[in-house]
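User: Okay, second chain of the day. Same drill as before: sequence in, structure tokens out.
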Amino acid sequence: MINSFQTKELCAVHFSVTFQTSCNWFDGLCTPTGDVVDFAAQSLPNYADIMWGD
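Assistant: Same drill. Structure tokens below.
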């Protein structure tokens, strides 16, 4: 998902999470789960390519 956003701020806004949560994702301290991953699959146009390749 982080490949889809230029900044941590934009990622936080897109997923309605705190800036700190976005930082944690970018820094690899934790990963998005559940409803966030589902929303990513639905809302990011390149999700499948990023996750599974062509």
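Residues 15 and 35 are 10 Å apart (CA to CA).

User: Thanks, on to the next one.
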